[in-house]
Amino acid sequence: MPIHLDISDLDRLVIAVGLGEITPDDIAEVAREFLKTGRQHYGKIIDTSAGTSPIDDDRLAAIAAFLRADPQAGSRGPLAFVVDPKRGVLPQKFADLTAGERPVKVFNTLRDARKWVRENMKKPL
């Protein structure tokens, strides 16, 4: 699969890295598999800087709706995208679709994304 997930329970952080051509089905499958983990409250960084996807606006909206329908959707942690500044349109569209549901932002560097996710994590009880 062209999407690699790294889940750190210690840091409550998920990093997904997309490499090469990523299909809408690849994205949907990773979303389904991630929801099964029960870690929706973790911070997430999705690095798309080395990947491309032919996903259209309708499929992107369908993935956003699928994630929104999850019973734990209200507890979703912050989401940061890392993009190639020359082609970061898809992550920005997804960020725009889900703004207001949880903290979400697009970055050009992993360092900035990590810092922002840490700052936007809910403190444990």
CATH class: Alpha Beta
Low-pLDDT parts are none
Can you summarize the main beta sheet? 5 strands, mixed
Q: What count of structural domains?
A: 1
Helix content: 25-40%
- Total of DSSP H or I helical runs spanning 4+ residues: 4
Instruction: Provide the CATH topology.
Output: Transcription Regulator spoIIAA
User: CATH superfamily name?
Assistant: STAS domain
Strand order of the largest sheet: 1-2-3-4-5
Counting helices, strands and paired strands, the structural category is: alpha/beta
Oligomer: single chain
Instruction: Indicate the overall shape.
Output: globular
Along the chain, the helix and strand elements come as EEHEHEHEH
Rounded to the nearest angstrom, the distance between the terminal CA atoms is 36 Å
- What proportion of the residues form beta strands (DSSP E)? 25-35%
Average pLDDT confidence is 91
The CATH architecture category equals: 2-Layer Sandwich
What is the number of E strands? 5
Cα-based radius of gyration, to the nearest Å: 13 Å
Keywords:
globular; Transcription Regulator spoIIAA; 125 residues; alpha/beta; 4 helices; 38% helix
Describe the structure.
There is one protein chain. This protein is α/β, with parallel strands linked by helices and 125 residues long. The protein has four helices and five strands, in the order ββαβαβαβα. The chain has one domain (3-120): STAS domain (Transcription Regulator spoIIAA, 2-Layer Sandwich). The chain has helices at 24-37, 57-68, 89-98, 110-120, and strands at residues 3-8, 13-21, 43-52, 79-82, 104-107. The chain has a five-stranded mixed beta sheet, with helices on both faces. Helix 1 (24-37) runs parallel beside helix 2 (57-68) and helix 2 packs across helix 3 (89-98). The radius of gyration is 13 Å and the shape is globular. The termini are far apart. The mean pLDDT is 91.
